[in-house]
Amino acid sequence: MKHNRNLMNSLIGCGLALALISTAAAQGAMDGAAKVVRVKGPARYTTGNNVWQPLHVGDVLRAGTVVQTSTEEGSYVDLVLGDGNAAVPQAVTYRPSVPDSMASHLNFRPSAEQNVVRIWANTAMGIDKLTAMQTGADTVTETQLDLKQGRITGNVKKMSAASKYEVKLPNGVAGVRGTLFDIQAIGIVKVYVGSMVVAWVDPKTQNVTTQTVMGGQSYDAPNNQISPLSAASMSEFQSLSLALIATEGVIVTPTSLASDHTVIGMSPVGANPNTLPTPVPPDQGGGGEF
To answer: How far apart are the first and last CA of the chain?
Structure first.
């Protein structure tokens, strides 16, 4: 009886210790930020209050922010994720630090020092979560992005085994490991380096398909088709890998946008991407169409 009581006390003590460790770990998680390091063409953001503000190089964005680029061809925004102190590139003409002969080599593998995501034209992306926690041996990070419409390209540095990097889509979610990737909200996923796991929900049947996409592969989630990347895609990825890790970037185009009250809907799994609201042009009372 005494032995059982001692055993019970030991288990309770272990449980309390684990609870304290878990609480301390939760308290140790720090909220990160995303810093705008490049802007080309008009872009804007909202922090959930339905008021839009023009986006500029140097802006620091927190979780809960939605970024939207214009429909103007060639527009984009580059964000460094999880580092509000990231250096802002100078407004100079891009000069690769890697020789062209090396950049064009098929075996070239870029090394990302920061997590960078490029938001292409006609895209809306939410920053849902950016946290980091020091465990002593590693830094555990958690990144959650919500690609509501359009396309993004990301370069992700090597992460600890416990870290998570996820991109939500209107009908699915993609889990990213140290990867150079390209994702379209309609469910087209391309991986140049690394790997991704894509879970896709068929909007008609609600059946879930899970697929691992390796480096050099493209995945059409709606049709559940995987194929090798085309030569054109590989070439584009090689050029982007240099641009995304460069400390000196492209010429920044100034923007001038008035705030408005356009609301962009969230994109839960199973939603129809065609139902995403379109900003109302100024002459129709809403303001803010690019």
So the answer is: 76
